[in-house]
Amino acid sequence: MKVLESNLDKEYAGITGVPKFTQAAATLAYGQTSSALNEGRVAITQSISGTGALRIGGAFLERFYPSAKKIYIPTPSWANHNAVFKDSGLEVVKYRYYNKDTIGLDFDGMIADLKSAPEGSIFLLHACAHNPTGIDPTKTQWTQISDVMKEKKHYPFFDMAYQGFASGDIDKDAFPIRHFQSEGHQFCLAQSFAKNMGLYGERVGAFSICCDSADEKKRVDSQIKILVRPLYSNPPVHGARIAGEILNDPQLYSQWEKEVKGMADRIISMRAALKKNLEDLGSKHDWSHITNQIGMFAYTGLNSEQMTRLAEEFSVYATKDGRISVAGITSHNVTRLAECIFKVTG
Ligand SMILES: Cc1ncc(COP(=O)(O)O)c(C=O)c1O
Question: Could you say which of 3.30.2350.10, 3.90.1150.10, 3.40.50.300, 3.40.50.150 is the CATH number of the domain covering 264-345?
């Protein structure tokens, strides 16, 4: 309403978008007390949501990253990462992330792959609510990941498409970004406001680079503009104005914070309900991964045959890799979902 009432025109934004939005997006990710922000070391541009941010990042690294033209992404990762980075001219390599035996994080495998990659490699890291597994490193594990990456001079590329959706707390979910920043890493970050503001179709996102100095930031800013101009000239304004309004108005911000928490809490309670229903049905399987995982998606551990049965016999549709959208579970359908999963898993 506030955006509509202000009766703004629809002139072009600048190449890097709506400053009121990008500045607030940076604060949201890096934190109020961020030294990088206070020292003017963060170059940021609005992007066509999270995908566009990743694409700008891919293009920037392809053009300027001094050594490897490779990017390491987790196994598995969001299905589009591979295509986005390939189309940016980078070679996509996988690192270990998911352990199918424990339905948890393959932390040792991940650390081993970080250690064995050539010095100065680029690693894509999901900041929170890893898609598709819903499995995130703990704070201690993030600290270790940061240490190894520093030792190996690797370059982190954070993808944060779900800030607030993992824990329900915007600040907690930004822990990896803020920790890496305080540890002196230089890195880049893709942010999406599709999920946490429900602005999917408005394509609201931001791409930023945490630079070494304010001087370097100026040069990066100018190169980002040179990259974006032939890609799409400038980003759409409406969604960025909505997000900018919410992030800059204390009242709207606190309402939004509560709504994000409400959403995350609902997801957490649906996970618990699904697990409990499966146990009440007498399932002998250990379903604790359902509640240990985090965010919109759950990796059930069901194989593709079981997922096919779910679809064909029970009209429950989800991806063949066993991933279900927890956001789609409600108090009305959780019992039926549990019964169907119970029937196909025995
Ligand atoms: C891990 C991850 N990164 C990025 C995105 C990009 O989303 P969007 O372009 O809609 O912001 C998604 C969307 O599902 C995602 O799961």
Answer: 3.90.1150.10
